[in-house]
């Protein structure tokens, strides 16, 4: 009996050691991501880790148990490391669906590499120790005892069931929290993944018997009801500016990592965006416009601007819905005789654009092989090269009297914002030299310059006066951890807020023959398609298109939702940015103009409920869209 007891305790030591090591890693993850370790929250991690280890213990033979434990530990270490880096870059805790984007990492390796901190490698410190212990055990060998073979699996199975039950309780109690960050902190890394999988399954089951038409009707009814109750003014008869750009060509330029605070900003007596400053005077300029992207980042911005559909937030829209027939601007204008083309200097497989562009109905795309690689940055060709090739293709269409819809996706202001010295056109003050802010402004200045050359080319070719130019930012650029808001404010002489300023991107719509106008109306990327359609004299409703955004030239009150970079339930309206806590009551609000905290936001409860329901219907709508033929 003494021999059996000793052997049993010895055999459990790797289990106990691995449990302790994994818990240390969970604590480390909480410190890196949530900036603190709360003992009571570690109980959720403990239940999940024990459940995982016990299940493996039960289903794995003694011969392979050590190997499997080692692999499990290595995989968990890699996942926690990758998730920490992911959070550092994106500001959100990834779920298992982020694995769909692993093939994109090499494309942005320069950006990813620049944010990895040495301390993140602590997740791997124990791997060598465990490897040594495993080798020692293999050298010494093991002997089996009949009684142990019966008792050990029985005890482990009972313990596993109890731990799974405890984890299930935690998951159930946290499933109603819409705020993903709060939910992840409450449940812990492992249970958060399980909760995400359960939610995805529930959402899929909820639409099994649904239809696109029913969901579209529900979305329309919800929007009509909300705006009626809100008392928003509705333009009677023909909408303002309807058809003012009818029949004209359309060029949409998506500006990489372009934040609105750079417009009309001067550094060291130099204008950062002289081209866009002038364009703002000659166009509809929307200074209170915000990003709404999800996991697909730049590709999600493309998707939204072309469809007025919210990204689901759990997967890049190009990856999840590239197999669908998606109602879009290319399809809408294609029915009106327009040719549709899109230009991007990266490989078209990046973010599965080779699937997204056909889903959106683009006739042609021009990617990496179409451009000369002038080695501007890690992506390859510069914005100048992008526009040069694009201008040639559009001139060919113009000479055929073929109206066109063209999309340009720029990359020269991509993180980490390094512009070759010979192409830098602005000199940063000494205080900004070598800082991310200084590099960012230098890259933004070049992006502005390249756009100016493109506009000059459109004018020289005679296309400018027959073309609507839409330009907008795809998402934020400055990394929050590298740019303290107070320091940015001091350096630039502006009020910079870590949320409002970060997510505020510009929108310009230049219509030939129309005077410039600053439109104070709040909006987001889902509003681009309805606004542009109105200018082109196309009624989305009459064409049978469902939009989850609104025409910003005919809206007096608006609310746009955001998730992924902010928790689900966050929204921008005419007054505030709202971010929920566990729910509405414990949320926070910031005035979008003064950038000061708003203590009493109770009057915006309807906006919160509305945006949650609207995004839910948007998710249902896109999931129900028909699939394309192979």
Chart the SSEs and their pairings.
Blueprint: H1 2-34, H2 39-59, H3 62-90, H4 109-113, H5 125-140, H6 146-174, H7 180-187, H8 189-206, H9 212-230, E1 249-255, E2 266-267, E3 270-271, H10 274-282, E4 284-290, H11 298-307, H12 317-320, H13 329-334, E5 339-344, H14 353-360, E6 364-366, H15 383-399, E7 404-409, H16 436-461, E8 467-473, H17 485-492, H18 500-503, E9 504-510, E10 517-518, E11 523-524, H19 528-535, E12 559-562, E13 570-573, E14 576-579, E15 588-591, H20 605-624
Parallel strand pairs: 1-7, 1-8, 4-10, 4-11, 5-6, 5-7
Antiparallel strand pairs: 2-3, 4-9, 8-9, 12-13, 13-14, 14-15
Describe this structure in words.
This protein has 630 residues and is α/β, with parallel strands linked by helices. The chain has two domains: 204 residues, no CATH class; 319 residues, Alkaline Phosphatase, subunit A, CATH 3.40.720. The chain contains 20 helices and 15 strands. Helix 14 links the parallel strand 5 and strand 6. Helix 1 packs across helix 2 and helix 1 packs parallel to helix 3. The N terminus is likely disordered.
Instruction: Look at the structure and name the CATH superfamily of the largest domain.
Output: Alkaline Phosphatase, subunit A
Determine the CATH topology of the largest domain: Alkaline Phosphatase, subunit A
Shape: globular
Report helical residue fraction: 40-55%
User: Strand fraction band?
Assistant: 5-15%
Write down the overall mean pLDDT.
88
Main sheet summary: 9 strands, mixed
How many domains comprise the coordinates?
Answer: 2
Structural class: alpha/beta
Highest CATH level, the class of the largest domain: Alpha Beta
| Low-confidence segments | 1-10, 142-148
Number of alpha- plus pi-helical segments:
20
